[in-house]
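BUG: 3D viewer hangs when loading the predicted structure for this chain

Environment: internal workstation, default settings.
Expected: structure renders.
Actual: progress bar stalls at 90%.

Input used:
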Amino acid sequence: MRRYYVSFPSLQHLTLAGELRIPTTDNPLPAVLIVHGSAGVDSRGAFYSDALNNAGIATLQIDMWTARGLKGGVDGRPKSALETLPDVYGAFKYLATRAEIDPSRIGIMGFSWGGVCSMLTATKSHTERYLGSQRFAAHAPFYPVFWRYNRAPGFEFRTFTGAPVLIQAGRADAYDDPDGCEQLLADLPEEARGHIRARVYDGATHGWDRLQEGPMRAFDPNAGKGQGAWVDFTPNPQVARRSRRAVVNFFRQVLL
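Structure tokens produced before the viewer hung:
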């Protein structure tokens, strides 16, 4: 395993940092970009990176807050995930320049805020704006706050690149209705339903895989379908293991 601490340009005049992990091999590898949540880089990145690396997939976990002088959290993040799409597309362009990486096999996954980025990069409009004819090969958003899609400008979720999408969500997530994920999927165009699928875990809250951080409760104005609500973050090791296994299997199927 080779591990590098790297820097690369966002597509909006920022220089971002990240941890790049590349399993040892002589052949170009698939890679997965890992995008953090509102709190910033935490234990979730390594939890999934370790498993993906063991499966022969490189990972790049990026830090979007430090370059902006932000501390993270509800009061220390940008106003909208739309502001950070240039970061994730810049990370794609960086990975595509690495000789060790196959640019046609770059996936993306993210948590909450990063999950929103993982969702929106599956759409044609944002991808064509930033990448032209290139695209991410697969998307794996975790609890990506469902209520906002197709309701707010820039969050249109109707025209897609065609890359496969695996959404993972918790039914006890206070950002949405318990069936918020199913509501979004049912509203998708018929042609999209073949490549967008979901796993919803009963009893799982937002951030069920923050295993090292411990339980937390915070008020977020974006929760409660945008009305504001208290959000529980309850670690759930059993669900975390299931979601890690699911995302590794997903990326193995579509990238290897």
